[in-house]
Structures are given as C-alpha cells and as structure tokens.
Design goal:
By secondary structure, the chain is α+β, with helices and mostly antiparallel strands. It has a domain of about 160 residues: Double Stranded RNA Binding Domain (2-Layer Sandwich). Helices cover about 20% and strands about 35% of the residues. Helix 2 links the parallel strand 2 and strand 3. The chain is elongated and about 70 Å long.
Length: about 230
C-alpha cells in the first residue's frame, strides 16, 4: 500500500529521531566494586601476573594482561619476574548474553478523508493527538562484560586488593569492551574498602580507551572507608 504524504513525513521523523538518539551514546558506563586492605607504597609496587596451570599459554589472557599492565603502570606499578615481585596479580573475565524485551509504542495516522475534522483543519497526527494506539514487544540482545583483578602479597598470600568492573550494552565483543573495563577498574587506585561507584569513559570510535585525562567517574558510594584517591565528579 502506498504511503500518503503525512505517513511518509512521520516515518522520516521517527527515523531521524532514531539516528539522533543512537548518536547520544558517547560514554561507556561501568560499575566498579572494590574491596581493599591496601597499605603499600609506591616503592613496593612491583608485581607479576599469576595464572592457573591450564592457562599458561592462553593468548586471550595475555592480551588482557597487557591492557591491565598499562593501567597498573599509570598507578606506579612495575612488572618484574615472579621471584622479585612484591605482589601477584590475577585476572578473571567473562561475557554473558541476555535478551531484553521492551514495549514500543505504535503510532497511526488519521485515515479520515477531507481537510477538516469537526470544522477545524485536520491534525496530521490524527484526532487524538500524537499518542500511541498500542504497543508491540521488541527483543534485543544485551551483553554483560566483566573483569576482576585480584592483588595478593606474594610473601604471605594475603589478598590486599580485589576490584571488579562490569558494564552492559549492545557490544558483543569482550575484546572491544576490555580497554574500558581495565581503565575503569584501576581508575583512582587504590579505592577504599567496599566502595561501589560508576565510572564513565568517553567512547572512542576505534574501540580503544581514550587518554587518561578523559576518564570521568561519578556516583562514588562507599558503606565503609572512603576512597583514598577518588576524584569523583558529579
């Protein structure tokens, strides 16, 4: 069926709105949860990565270690041999897919003929204004990405820092999400114990994390000790 003039205009308007809204997602938002018993100084910040025996030659893990290592270097950590390291750093990561169903409004155009309705020029949206006549369910995939970083004292085996970064969205690749997870997890290291906060990082079209100065963290909330170096911006 051929679309009339107003129907075409409404379709074009909705398409333009969809493009505009899609361009509004300029930040990657990550929830960070930290547990800390940190008392180290910059002089003791030497570390080595530790892996399970069955992950010794895992290329994916090596890639993520390199990203985390870059963020640790920003926090004055220096990677050394295992026997010389003050701390051991272990990584955990994963991705999960879920389907989310959202009710979308359905609009219609008034099909009544004639240029007037009840003696007035006809509203192009129909006699009842721009309101939906019903809703349809649309399902979309949502991916949750996770990175956990566990730091232990090599000499005692004591856990001194444990942080988890988690974000969700339409990105189906953990590789592309990992730079944002690593940057968020170690921003303002070390956080206080039992700190939960949200970190927003500007989205880089290439999929890489932007410069360190671009990191913006918001919504810091800690039920226990406050973050020792948190620079939260509301």
């Amino acid at each position: 069926m051929k679309l009339d003039r107003w129907t075409r205009r409404a379709a074009m308007l909705l398409a333009a709105m969809a493009v505009t809204l899609s361009g509004c997602t300029t930040y990657v938002t990550t929830q960070v949860t930290a547990f800390s018993d940190w008392s180290g100084s910059d002089a003791t910040r030497t570390y080595a990565f530790t892996r399970p025996a069955d992950q010794k030659n895992n290329l994916e893990l090596s890639t993520y270690e390199a990203l985390v290592g870059n963020e640790l270097a920003i926090q004055s950590f220096r990677r050394v041999n295992s026997q010389d390291a003050h701390y051991l750093v272990g990584l955990g990561y994963g991705i999960r897919s879920d389907m989310v169903t959202v009710s979308q409004p359905v609009y219609y155009y008034n099909p009544w003929p004639g240029p007037y309705y009840w003696g007035r020029p006809m509203d192009p949206w129909g006699p009842f204004g721009p309101f939906p006549t019903g809703y349809v369910d649309q399902s979309y995939p949502v991916y949750t990405h996770l990175l956990s970083i566990r730091i232990t004292d090599r000499a005692t085996g004591k856990e001194v820092y444990n942080v988890t970064a988690r974000n969700s969205g339409a990105e189906s690749s953990l590789v592309r999400a990992m730079p944002y997870l690593a940057r968020s997890a170690l921003a303002d290291f070390p956080l206080g114990n039992a700190v939960v906060r949200t970190v927003r990082i500007p989205l880089d079209g290439s999929g890489a994390a932007p410069s360190n100065e671009a990191t913006v963290s918001t919504g810091a909330a800690a039920p226990a000790a406050p973050a020792s170096a948190a620079k939260a911006v509301q």
